[in-house]
Amino acid sequence: MSTTTVTKSPVGAPDRAPAPPRRADAEGRIGLRANLRHIGALARRNALQIKQDPESMFDAVLMPIIFILLFVYVFGGAISGKGNNDAYVNYVAPGLMAMMGMNIAMAVGVGINDDFKKGVMDRFRTMPIARSSVLIAKIVVEIGRMLIATAILLGMSFLLGLTIHTSVLHLFAAIGLSMVFGASLMWIFILIGLTVKTAQAVQGMAMMVLMPLQFGSSIFAPTTTMPGWLETFTDYNPLSNLADAARNLINGGPVAHSVWMTLGWALAITVVTAPLAVSKFRKKT
Known about the structure:
Elements: H1 32-52, H2 58-80, H3 85-118, H4 120-125, H5 131-160, H6 168-195, H7 199-215, H8 228-236, H9 238-251, H10 256-284
Helix pairs in contact: 1-5, 2-3, 2-5, 3-5, 3-6, 3-7, 3-9, 5-6, 6-9, 6-10, 9-10
């Protein structure tokens, strides 16, 4: 016959049930200050990873140099006439700022997918942090990479003859507009990275999105020489709006329509894809 020992609570101490485990995904209970602190800590972690792996910066450092040299010396003479490369630099450099944003955004999706393969995200499952803070921290660091790529692009463009016909403030406005739109695109590629199974699939789907948008736009050449159906597509292409806005901010010209269209596209893309990406991330982890 076995006996069971019953341990009583001390006199005067209320009986308490064991505290339930704290849920890591209870984002609604995490305040704004804590969220910002989590984002800062995760962004620092991502930045340290880049410091430990400098090769991850090759795309941000080398792509701007390759693209500006390639398009100026291959297409510049054909579009602006032989010997008029300076004029083409002023046309294509603002457009390439938009292109940089798309290429950096694609790398975000690949990185998210790779983090899941390596099990990095498993560590975040046990932490009492908002799931959105993981993705926002990733975007913050990638915006920094985008700024570096844009600075290198503009530096090379100045060496090739880029001239600011407005003011430095207009140049900064063009850079800021590119950053805002690039950040919105990152949500698309994060969603793709969370949806498909491999990094190769992310790159494949990204190229299917990138190619029509980049070459069916006003980034590389005026749209007036395109067929009517393609010119209509470029009018609604958000990259055309961004390229035109940045170009007119740097070279002078009407900017209101292009700027508002770009901001509208950025807002719409973020409002639609950011909640989907966060929801997918929460379910996946």
